[in-house]
Write a structure and sequence with these properties.
By secondary structure, the protein is α/β, with parallel strands linked by helices. It has 2 domains: 219 residues, Rossmann fold, CATH 3.40.50; 159 residues, Rossmann fold. It has a 7-stranded mixed beta sheet, sandwiched between helices. A 6-stranded parallel beta sheet has the order 10-9-8-11-12-13, sandwiched between helices. Strand 8, helix 8 and strand 9 form a beta-alpha-beta unit. The longest helix is centred in the last third of the chain and has 19 residues. It is globular. The chain starts with 16 loop residues before the first strand and ends in a 10-residue tail after the last helix.
Length: 423
C-alpha cells in the first residue's frame, strides 16, 4: 500500500500546523472516536497536530502536543460556566494558541464552554466539524421531547411546550443560543458538517461558509467480510439512550420471530437504558433472542459484523452522520435505518439497505425480514455499501476534502469569496 493510499502521504496544500480542539480526549461516543482517529490520520498525512480538550484533571503541558484542561469538580459550576464565561478555560486555551501558533484551528465539539473557547480562538482561521445540533437546539437532538417529531431548531417557547426545557431554564437557553451563534459567526470561518440535513440547518441559521465533508470510518475492515448465507443475526451498535430508538428495534423482534424463530438480535453498546431495555426484552418474551454485549473494541466489532445478516439503526433523533453506518457499509452489511437526519443520505446514496419510518417496529421488522429471507438481496446490498464506502468515505477521500476546505478557508480569511456548498 502506498503512502498516499494509507493516509501517510504529504500534507495537503494550505495549513501544515493544526490545533485541534474538542470536548473530550478519550473514546466515549462516536464524535470522540472520530476525533481521535482524525488526529492520527492527519499526523500520518504529514500535518503537525496539537490537541486541546477537557478532563477531570489537567494533563499535558503548554510545551507539548497535547493540553488537557481540568474542569471544575462541581457539576453546578460546569453548568454555570457553560452558560456564561470560564476565565480559566479562556486563558489556558489562549496561551496554548499563542504557543502553538497554528496555521489553522480545527474545532470539533465546543459544547462544554462554548463562549470561552470561541473567545480564545479569535483572530485565527477556524474551521469547525459539526457532530450535532447543540448550537442550533438546546438539547442538540432537534426533535421534540414529547412526540419525537423533527424541530426547526432555535430556542423559544416551543422548547417548553414540547417538554424539552423547563420554563425556568428557558431564558438561560435563549441567551446562550443567541450568544453562541453570534460568537460562532464571528470566529468560525468555515463550517464542516458531515450530513446534508445539518448543512441545511446551518444555512438556515445564517452561517455563511458551509461545506459538507462526510466522515471516514474509524473501524479498520481492510478485507471484505463474506456475507453469511445462513445467518439470522441482526446487530445494533451504539449507546443505549432513548433518542437512539433501540426500544422500537426490540419491539420489532416478536414480529421477526413469528416467521423466523431462530433469528436473534445482538446489541453492542452501553448506556442509561441498558437495564430497562433488557427488562423490555423479557416482558416481550424475547430475552433469549436478544443478547446485550456491552461495549466492545473494534476487533470484536469486526467479528460481530462478520456474523450478522444486517445492521439496524433505529434512531429517533436527527442523527448527524452515524459512524455505525460507515462501519456497516465497510463491513459489507446492509442497513435498516430510520428516516431521520443523515441516515437516509448514507443508505440511499450507497443503495445499501432500507429506510423505514422512525418509531415503527412493524416497518423495522418487515425490512429486516426481507433481508433474512433473501440472502442474495442482503449480499448485493452489502456489496453496494462496501463499494460506496471505499469510494466515498476512505481516509484518503477525507484528506482530499479536508485539504480543499483548508484552501478555501485560508482564501476566505485573505479576502477571497465566501460561498456555501452542500457537498
Amino acid at each position: 500500500m502506498s503512502a498516499e493510499a494509507d493516509g501517510s502521504g504529504p500534507p495537503r496544500a494550505g495549513a501544515r500546523r493544526l490545533l485541534m480542539v474538542h470536548n473530550l480526549l478519550e473514546e466515549k461516543g462516536g464524535a470522540e472516536t472520530f476525533f481521535l482517529k482524525e488526529v492520527d490520520v492527519l499526523r500520518r498525512a504529514g500535518y503537525e497536530v496539537f490537541v486541546f480538550g477537557f478532563g477531570d484533571e489537567d494533563g499535558g503541558d503548554e510545551s507539548g502536543p497535547m493540553l488537557r484542561k481540568g474542569e471544575p469538580r462541581s457539576i453546578w459550576l460546569r453548568k454555570v460556566f457553560k452558560f456564561t464565561f470560564h476565565p480559566g478555560v479562556y486563558r489556558a486555551l489562549r496561551r496554548y494558541v499563542r504557543r502553538v501558533q497554528p496555521d489553522l484551528i480545527h474545532l470539533h465539539m465546543d459544547t462544554k464552554y462554548p463562549l470561552s473557547v470561541l473567545a480564545a480562538l479569535r483572530g485565527h482561521p477556524v474551521i469547525q466539524m459539526f457532530h450535532g445540533g447543540t448550537i442550533l437546539c438546546p438539547t442538540g437532538w432537534l426533535v421534540h421531547a414529547d412526540d419525537l417529531e423533527p424541530c426547526e431548531g432555535g430556542a423559544g417557547w416551543k422548547c417548553v411546550h414540547h417538554g424539552c426545557v423547563p420554563a425556568r431554564q428557558l431564558p438561560f437557553h435563549v441567551g446562550l443560543q443567541w450568544a453562541w451563534q453570534r460568537a460562532a459567526r464571528r470566529v468560525v470561518t468555515h463550517f464542516m458538517p458531515p450530513s446534508r440535513y445539518l448543512s441545511e440547518y446551518l444555512r438556515r441559521f445564517g452561517f455563511p461558509l458551509v461545506t459538507r465533508v462526510p466522515y471516514f470510518s474509524p473501524m479498520s475492515v481492510r478485507e471484505e467480510l463474506p456475507s453469511p448465507a445462513h445467518s439470522e443475526t441482526l446487530v445494533y451498535t451504539g449507546v443505549l439512550t432513548h433518542q437512539k430508538g433501540v426500544e422500537f428495534l426490540i419491539r420489532a423482534m416478536p414480529i421477526v420471530l413469528e416467521r423466523h424463530p431462530s433469528a436473534e438480535l445482538v446489541v453492542v453498546g452501553d448506556g442509561p437504558l441498558a437495564e430497562w431495555l433488557a427488562e423490555l426484552a423479557g416482558s416481550l418474551g424475547v430475552a433469549d433472542r436478544v443478547h446485550f454485549r456491552g461495549r466492545l473494541p473494534n476487533r470484536e466489532l469486526t467479528r460481530i459484523y462478520g456474523a450478522a445478516r444486517a445492521c439496524v439503526i433505529p434512531s429517533m433523533w436527527l442523527e448527524n452522520s452515524p459512524l455505525v453506518a460507515y462501519e456497516a457499509m465497510l463491513a459489507g452489511r446492509p442497513i435498516v435505518g430510520s428516516d431521520r437526519g443523515g441516515i437516509p443520505d448514507l443508505i440511499e446514496a450507497g443503495e445499501c439497505g432500507f429506510v423505514v419510518p422512525p418509531k415503527d417496529p412493524a416497518a423495522i421488522a418487515e425490512s429486516a425480514l426481507r433481508l433474512l429471507e433473501d440472502p442474495e438481496l442482503a449480499a448485493r446490498l452489502g456489496a453496494n455499501g462496501r463499494r460506496h464506502a471505499i469510494q466515498s468515505f476512505s481516509e484518503q477521500v477525507f484528506l482530499d476534502r479536508f485539504g480543499r476546505v483548508i484552501e478555501e478557508t485560508l482564501a476566505a480569511v485573505a479576502g477571497g469569496p465566501a460561498r456555501t456548498r452542500a457537498a
